[in-house]
Amino acid sequence: MPAEKTLRICDKGHRYYKSSDCPTCPVCNEENKPQRGFLRELSAPARNALLQQQIDTLEKLSGYSEKDILALHGVGPASLPVLKQHLTEAELTFKT
User: Fold this and answer.
1) Mean predicted lDDT score pLDDT of the chain
2) What is the pLDDT of residue 33?
3) Which domain of life is it from (predicted)?
4) Model pTM?
């Protein structure tokens, strides 16, 4: 049985319903979504996980292994192909 959704209001006054304990406002996430770059192509949880670790450039991303990135809460296997593609285009790789 799915959890019941509750009404939440973020600091900016956005009203939204959520069933999880995650405090992230989906409206704020959409407003803060980058217009270009590799972070734009990721899901909000994956993008937030990388930003939480201050991984906001491909150069910083290349300092981590795939295992390191997958260990971040919010990043799943579906994010890896996107990240690998952008690293390859920039002639970078994950740390081995």
Assistant:
1) 93
2) 86
3) Bacteria
4) 0.79
